[in-house]
Structure formats: C-alpha cells, structure tokens
Amino acid sequence: MTTRADKLTTYRRKRDFTRTREPAGGGRSKSSKLAYVIQKHAASRLHYDLRLELDGVMKSWAVPKGPSLDPSVKRLAIHVEDHPIEYNRFEGTIPAGEYGGGTVMVWDYGTYTSANGEGDPEQALREGYRIGDFKFVLRGKRLRGSWVLVRTKGWGDRSRQGQWLLIKHRDDDADPDTDPVAEYLTSATSGRTMEEIAEGKPAKRPRKPRG
C-alpha cells in the first residue's frame, strides 16, 4: 500500500529544503473537507497550478493558460507530482536555480467535492481520477461550480507527463463573457500582486487557505 510519504517522494526529491521555503509536508492528516487551491506561478513560464486534495496529498496539474469559465473552452492541464497539503498555504518566491524557481501566489482556494451526488464522494473522486474522467464541484473564493479534468494521453509513460483537459461544465457558474485570469490579479489570501510578493511586501489582509 502506498503511504502519504511515498506519494511525496518525487516532490521532495526535486527540492532542496535548505534553500526553498516550500514545505516538506507529510505532517497533515486528511482534512474534514477536501481542500482546493490554485496557485499562480511565474516560473520559466507563467502558469496556474490546480491542486485538489485526495488520499492525503494534493493531486496537481499545471494549467498554462489558467481556468476558463467558458464551457466551450478546453484548457490543457499537465499532471505533475503530488504536493503536500501544507503547500496550500505557500505564497512567496522559490529561489532561482531551484525546481520551479519564481514567484508563487495563492490565486484561489476553498473546498471541493465530487460532482456525483450519490454515494461516497471520495470514492467517486478516486474512481474518476483513476479512469481519467475526474468530475468535481469547486467551492472556492473565486471559482465555483462543476468542472471536469479529462485525461488525454501520456498516462503511465514515465518519459512524459500525463496530459489532461480542464473544462467548465454548463451550470449557473459558467460565464463565457468573464475571464477570471484577467479579472483577478491579486492574491486571494494576502491581496498582493505578483510584483509585491516578489518584493516581499507585507500582506494587505491576513487570510490563509486550509492546509
């Protein structure tokens, strides 16, 4: 049986925790409600990291263009290594030369659950993740409603990362006329811009996501 520590092996191997302030993780047990976070990340290329708690870790996808509220838009989402739940609180700068070096913002956070209204929601999420048809409902500060991650290719091939598509379902929270990436330019927790985070300026409002 794979333990939470085992799931974080790749995450830890890529990082030097004597240099980066990112958490080593592994100290948090399961949340009472499953956590969700999106972190805006200015690494070699700007992208958005979608993280969904499942089985004691944050399942993670890098979304180059960020989420769209338009159900007709399919956004590429590249599956990356599991992250610790403690990572949900991380906002700051990863040193140059370190894996993912650059500025990280907590762009959105909240909780999520299965889009399947029947049975055990976690089992439904686990099965959806396994088969590559991962349907979920976000209850975030900025993003809400029903979404799906659909696996396309690369799964199980160690030479490449799995490619998925992030799609907004048609519901009351869908809005083709609003671009959340353009609308929300500050941190959902500290109120800071990416530039202010990079400069180490203090938070404008002390709010922290779960994790």
What does this structure look like?
It is a single chain. By secondary structure, this protein is mostly beta strands. It has one domain. It is 14% helix and 35% strand. It contains five helices and nine strands; from the N terminus they run ααββββββαβββαα. It has helices spanning 4-7, 9-13, 121-131, 180-183, 194-198; strands at residues 35-42, 46-54, 57-63, 75-83, 92-94, 102-114, 133-140, 144-153, 163-168. It has an eight-stranded antiparallel beta barrel with strand order 1-2-3-4-9-8-7-6. The two termini are 24 Å apart. The relative contact order is 0.20. The model has no long low-confidence stretch (mean pLDDT 91).
> Mean of residue pLDDT?
91
Helix content: 10-25%
Q: How much is the radius of gyration in Å?
A: 16 Å
Overall number of structural domains: 1
Question: What is the ordering of alpha helices and beta strands?
Answer: HHEEEEEEHEEEHH
Number of helices: 5
Q: What's the β-strand tally?
A: 9
Give the overall form. Answer: globular
**Percent in strands:** 25-35%
Segments where pLDDT lies below 50 for 5+ residues? none
Report the major sheet.
8 strands, antiparallel, barrel
Biggest sheet, strands in spatial order?
Answer: 1-2-3-4-9-8-7-6
N- to C-terminal distance: 24 Å
Provide the structure class: mainly beta
